[in-house]
Structure formats: structure tokens, C-alpha cells
Design goal:
Elements lengths: L7 H57 L26 E6 L4 E4 L5 H5 L6 E4 L2 E7 L5 E8 L1 H49 L18 H49 L3 H31 L4 E7 L1 H15 L5 E4 L6 E4 L1 H18 L6 E4 L5 E6 L6 H6 L17 H12 L2 E5 L9 E6 L7
Helix pairs in contact: 1-3, 4-5, 5-9, 6-7, 7-9
Length: about 450
């Protein structure tokens, strides 16, 4: 089973979406990593500066007196009390040359002091610990700054960067989708324009639905359609001209044969002349069918304005009565009211005459032909005959296909009807046997009817 090909829009959008997601993830990781490193460097510099400043203050204080004589609640960083919460304040220790604690902050945890390294900055127990000493190593200061605020800042930066990339990604995805959708819509319109082309419309493709990359392909298609249009017109012109040219000489031949037949006294010669006349009349009908086929191929089916087709149907039914001869051989239910339709009257005449001819040729002898046009827009032509199989019903719609080799027809009448129905928007339904019966054949023609103004 053939799988349906994926759409161009989905293919291009997925092709752009995956690299966009990967690029966004890498961008977030890069920006967050750079921001974290720079912020850590800035905060470490601030911590070292604070420790040195505290050391300078204590050295100046030691020149004025012994540090051991200072009150226990002395805190050079007391300004943090009014600025920071308890879990964000800096802890500090002041050590002498032997590593003994001279002064410490109230909330200092000695376990943090044990993790400090002289002259280095380390991280322990969610604190950033700094250890600085004086030049003579007689005094050292250890500070421990909580990482709560630093981690919150990094988290905020990460959330901001991720949010920014998400918004940027959504905007880019939306813009890309809109651009791809517009481009795909142009190609869809181009495909629809090409799909509408057929034997009756081989005009050049609309160039507003093309891109520069596919213009050469459109040029090639236009060239092929132009050549095909020329060939089809030549074929139609040949069929039309040939049929027109043959009508007059064939009619003359029929007249001469009829005059000859009237003069002949030999029964065998008269019979031969009758056979010639029959053959010439059959040739006349073939010429008429070829003319109808030529008109059908030229796109006869639809007229520009809707008109009442009831008089056309009535006229054709009157002509059918004259052709059928005996009144009992025909049952007609005439149309009523106004039938407004865009079906061309000439096309309707060709359709109905072919259906009537088909019924007259194939109806069982001494059985009536029924034409029911009592329902608006529906004409049913039925006759009695042997029932046809489903395959036979499909075959008789094809050109030059006949239900019986001995048939008088040419096998093109129903194909002409089918062609004109397709052009005019009409529907032709063939059924055998007739509805509710075991025999017969019926052709139902449904015409496109519009409301009268």
C-alpha cells in the first residue's frame, strides 16, 4: 500500500524546528555558564576586598590597643544587620599568628573555619570562604559569605535567559511557520491551477503562484500544454471539417440511389440498391455522431447565463413522438414549471437525442418507451430489454464500446452524453434492470437547476 507523502510545510517546519531547539539549548547553556563565571568572579573579588578591608580596619585598631581587649560584641560588619537577612550575613573570624581566635561574629560556625585555606577562596557548606593574612602573618581574617543570594541571582539569570530564549524561539517559530505557510499556499494554489487544466482548459498557468526556482518547470508545462492545445484543436477541426464535407456528398449519393432504386425492375438489383441506401443512411448517422463528438470536445456543455430549458425539453419530446411513429410505443410525462439551468440548450439536445436513440434501438419490439420528465431537473428514459450486467453498464459508457456486435449503433452515443454531462455539471445514472422490475434499462439524467429569479 502506498503511503501518503508528507506535506512540504510539515517537512520544512520540522527541518527548521530541530536545529532551532538545539541552538536554543546550546545558547542557554553558554549564556548561563558565562554569566555564572563572571558573577562568581565579581562576587569573589568583592569577598576578597571585604576581607582585606576588614583586615586593614583590625590592623589599624591593633595599633591603638590590644585586640583581645575589644568587647565581644564588636562587629566591624554591623552595617549588614540592617541590610541583609540573617541567612545572608557574612561570618568572620580574626586569628592571631598562632591561629587562635581573637574575634568572631555572633553567628560564625567554627566548622566553616576548619575548611578555610590561607590565601585561597574555597566553597564549603553552602558558603564561600576567604582567608587573608597580613604581611607579617601576625593577623588573619577569615570570612564566610552564604551562597544563598549568589545562587538566587544565578537562578534568576537562568530563568531570565531560558524565558528569553523560549519567547525568542516561539516568535521565530511563529514567523517561520507563517513564512513557510505562505510559501506552501503559493505552491498549493499552483497545484490547484495545474489540476484544473484539462482538455477544455489549456491556458497558461497563472504566474503569480510561482517562485523563481520552479519557473523553468512552469515554462516547460506551458509549452507542453500549448502544443497539446494545438494538436487537440487540429484534431477537432479535422473531425468537424471532415464531417461537414462528407454530409453533402453522402446526401447526394442517397438521392441518386433512391432514384436508381425507383427505376430498377430487377428484384436483386433493387435489393442491392436498398442495401446501399441503408449503408449510406448509417454513414449519415455516423457523420452526425462525429459532429456531436467534435462539439462535445470543444466544451459545449455550459452557457454563461441560466435560462429556462423546459421549452427545449418539450420540443425534443415532440420530435421524439414524430420519430417513434405509433402513439402506443411511447409514454411521455412532460415537464412542468420553469427549469432554470446553465446547461447549454444545444448540449441538452445532443444528450437527450442520444438517450432517445439508444432507447429506440434497443427496446424490445412492441413494448413502449417511457420518458418521465415530471420531476424538476430529472429526466428518466427507460425501455424494455434483456437486463445488463454491471460490467456491461460500465463498458457501454466507453467510446466505441457496444453491448452487442450486431447492434446498429456506433458505440459513441453514451460516451458523448457522459462527456457533456461532465462539462455541464449534470449527472447520468444507468440502471439495468429497471427499478422494481426484472428486465429493462433506464437512464436517469439529473440537471443542475437553479432557483428562478
Amino acid at each position: 500500500m502506498m503511503t501518503r507523502p508528507d506535506s512540504l510545510l510539515n517537512t520544512l517546519f520540522r527541518a527548521l524546528l530541530l536545529p532551532g531547539i538545539v541552538a536554543s539549548a546550546l545558547g542557554v547553556a553558554l549564556v548561563v555558564n558565562l554569566a555564572k563565571n563572571e558573577y562568581d568572579e565579581l562576587q569573589d573579588m568583592s569577598a576578597v576586598t571585604r576581607a582585606h578591608l576588614l583586615l586593614e580596619v583590625l590592623q589599624a585598631q591593633s595599633k591603638l590597643g590590644d585586640l583581645s581587649d575589644m568587647p565581644p560584641d564588636f562587629n566591624p560588619l554591623s552595617f549588614e544587620l540592617g541590610l541583609l537577612s540573617s541567612d545572608e550575613r557574612t561570618s568572620f573570624w580574626v586569628l592571631d599568628g598562632q591561629g587562635q581566635i581573637i574575634l568572631r561574629s555572633d553567628q560564625a560556625d567554627d566548622a566553616l573555619l576548619a575548611a578555610s585555606l590561607s590565601g585561597k577562596i574555597v566553597t564549603a557548606s553552602k558558603h564561600r570562604i576567604t582567608h587573608v593574612s597580613s604581611e607579617d602573618a601576625s593577623l588573619s581574617v577569615v570570612t564566610a559569605i552564604p551562597l544563598v543570594e549568589r545562587n538566587e541571582a544565578i537562578l534568576d539569570v537562568m530563568i531570565g535567559v531560558i524565558s528569553g530564549f523560549i519567547l525568542l524561539g516561539l516568535f521565530v517559530a511563529f514567523a517561520a511557520y507563517r513564512a513557510l505557510r505562505r510559501s506552501a499556499a503559493v505552491i498549493i494554489d499552483l497545484s490547484a491551477d495545474i489540476e484544473r487544466k484539462g482538455a477544455h482548459d489549456l491556458s497558461p498557468i497563472d504566474r503569480k503562484n510561482t517562485f523563481a526556482e520552479i519557473s523553468p518547470a512552469i515554462d516547460t508545462i506551458d509549452t507542453l500544454m500549448s502544443r497539446l492545445d494545438t494538436a487537440l484543436k487540429a484534431e477537432q477541426a479535422f473531425a468537424t471539417n471532415a464531417a461537414h464535407e462528407l454530409r453533402t456528398p453522402v446526401a447526394i449519393c442517397v438521392a441518386h440511389v433512391q432514384r436508381l432504386q425507383a427505376k430498377l425492375r430487377d428484384p436483386d438489383a433493387a435489393e442491392s440498391a436498398a442495401e446501399i441506401e441503408h449503408g449510406l443512411k448509417r454513414l449519415t448517422r455516423l457523420i452526425e455522431r462525429l459532429l456531436q463528438m467534435s462539439r462535445a470536445q470543444s466544451g459545449l456543455g455550459v452557457s454563461e447565463e441560466a435560462s429556462d430549458i423546459t421549452p427545449v425539453v418539450t420540443l425534443l419530446l415532440r420530435e421524439l413522438k414524430e420519430r417513434a411513429g405509433a402513439t402506443e410505443a411511447l409514454v411521455i410525462h412532460p415537464p412542468e414549471g420553469i427549469w432554470m439551468s446553465n446547461v447549454d440548450p444545444d448540449a441538452l439536445g445532443i444528450i437527450l437525442n442520444n438517450l432517445f436513440d439508444n432507447a429506440l434501438k434497443h427496446a424490445t419490439v412492441h413494448t413502449p418507451i417511457t420518458v418521465d420528465a415530471s420531476q424538476t431537473g430529472h429526466i428518466v428514459v427507460s425501455n424494455d430489454c434483456q437486463p445488463l450486467s454491471a460490467s456491461a453498464l460500465d463498458t457501454i459508457k466507453q467510446r466505441f464500446a457496444r453491448n452487442s456486435p450486431l447492434s446498429e449503433g456506433f458505440g459513441i452515443g453514451l460516451s458523448i452524453v457522459q462527456e457533456l454531462c461532465t462539462q455541464s455539471g449534470s449527472q447520468l445514472h444507468l440502471a439495468s434492470p429497471r427499478e422494481g422490475e426484472e428486465r429493462g434499462f433506464s437512464a436517469t439524467l439529473a440537471l443542475p437547476i437553479s432557483e428562478p429569479r
